[in-house]
Specification:
Layout: E1 2-4, E2 11-17, E3 24-28, E4 31-37, H1 42-51, H2 53-66, H3 72-75, E5 77-80, E6 83-92, E7 96-100, E8 103-109, H4 117-148, E9 154-158, E10 165-167, E11 172-176, H5 184-196, H6 205-214, H7 218-228
Parallel strand pairs: 2-4, 6-8, 9-11
Antiparallel strand pairs: 1-2, 3-4, 5-6, 7-8, 10-11
Helix pairs in contact: 4-5
């Protein structure tokens, strides 16, 4: 349940438990959670937060700073699954993106205005990443289908901002191209996750048992998303 500390005005999520004997604080994804024994008075919890106010403020600030998406364009270094590609931007007669080894060449048309250059670069890179995603996910779905003995009807690549994958009752799988910015083992987890929905269209214990059977590292992958999903944006 959502609460606000009456002494500090800090919002928090309260998670009471019959098994707990003491109050504890937890900060994840910029959110304060209070783990407390069931029945503990709110005033006692708020008083505990007041005592730990400096600790809470410091860790909330650190997480907020860590969650700022990197500017890959400014850094000139682009992630592609387990690789790092050096970005080189050059002016040319037309706009295009091509890869040469570990260098990604972005040709920008001379006709693009100065005010539009950055946005045009993002558009070109986004389109290039979508092409890579189409190839990679087609191959990985084919591999995991064989392992899991299931069959998807089609694979689509999407331009979602924060949703990573989906599976319909008709077997249509969709994946976010931004997963190309994640490590291979994390993107692979999303493939197994969505393919597991072909057997269980829910998140029941049977579903998670099937995910665990084929991808034992699924808990680590879920934790990676909690801690690092802000990295899956070009800027």
């Amino acid at each position: 349940m959502s609460e606000i500390c009456q002494f500090t005005a800090i919002p928090y999520q309260l998670k009471p438990s019959l098994r707990r004997r003491s109050v504890a604080l937890q900060i994840r994804n910029g959110q304060l959670t209070v783990l407390a024994p069931a029945g503990v008075a709110k005033q006692q919890i708020d008083g505990f937060i007041l005592q730990k106010q400096q600790w809470v403020a410091r860790h909330l600030q650190l997480q907020q700073q860590a969650a700022v998406p990197p500017d890959y364009l400014l850094a000139g270094l682009l992630p592609l699954l387990d690789e790092k590609l050096q970005l080189k931007v050059v002016s040319d007669s037309c706009s295009a993106v091509s890869r040469d080894g570990q260098t990604l060449w972005l040709q920008l048309s001379n006709r693009v205005s100065t005010a539009r250059r950055r946005q045009k670069q993002l558009e070109l890179l986004g389109a290039w990443y979508q092409q890579q995603a189409e190839l990679w996910f087609a191959a990985r779905v084919a591999y995991w289908q064989q392992q899991m003995q299931v069959q998807a009807s089609a694979v689509h690549i999407k331009n979602w901002q924060s949703k990573w994958g989906s599976c319909t009752s008709k077997g249509l799988l969709s994946f976010n191209w931004r997963l190309m910015l994640a490590p291979c083992w994390v993107a692979d987890y999303v493939v197994v996750h969505e393919l597991a929905h072909l057997s269980h269209m829910d998140h029941s214990s049977a579903f998670w048992q099937r995910v665990a059977k084929f991808y034992p590292e699924f808990k680590q992958a879920k934790q990676w998303f909690k801690q690092h999903q802000h990295l899956l944006q070009l800027v």
